Amino acid sequence: MKKIRKILIILSLLLILSVGGFLIYASDYYRADDSAIAILNSADDITIKDNLTFLSTKESSNTGIIFYPGAKVEAIAYLPLLNQIRDNGINSILVEMPLNMAIFNSNAAHSVISSYPEITNWYIMGHSMGGAMASKYASDHPEKVKGLILLGAYVYGDYPPEKSLTIYGSFNSNLEDNIDYTDNIIVIDGGNHAKFGNYGVQKGDPEGTITHEEQQSIAVKAILDFIN
Known about the structure:
Layout: H1 2-27, H2 34-42, E1 46-49, E2 52-55, E3 63-68, H3 79-87, E4 91-95, H4 109-115, E5 121-127, H5 129-140, E6 147-151, E7 164-169, E8 185-188, H6 212-227
Helix pairs in contact: 3-6
């Protein structure tokens, strides 16, 4: 009995250390910069409800994009990108993920779709890990969305590439090793991995040679062309 109790104590300690270590890791995330916070504080027609930030169009639209953020990135860092999309007539819904990791709620789109029944044409979009989880959702529920949009990510799962848009920066070219399709691929010359969001420099990511504004503007044009 003493030996079993000792093993259980050791296992419990290892579990506590593992959970504690992960929580410390997850708490060290990339925070939105001032430009993203300024949009949150000043832009019209932004509604925050539970874990969703809804950027509604100024005119009625039945098209919407559900956005999954990248891993360990504060969700509102993507407001500059999504605000541009909203200004072009497409509702945008930003999902705040548990511990800032989309892997913990890949089916978040379910609640988004049910919360906004007036939107009937849905696209799902994500950055990095958020893109992988958006791709998983589209693969598992193809009847729920009309298309998949990936930023710094590639199609993950069984979803038709012809119904997908893949955008990445030329300084993030390692993605090419995982792309085995040729449909709807946009490579942003001078772009990197992080500048789809406004959260500063990401560890291991080259600086790139264009600004956040330039990279996001190119991405928005490609997204609008894809949807329209």
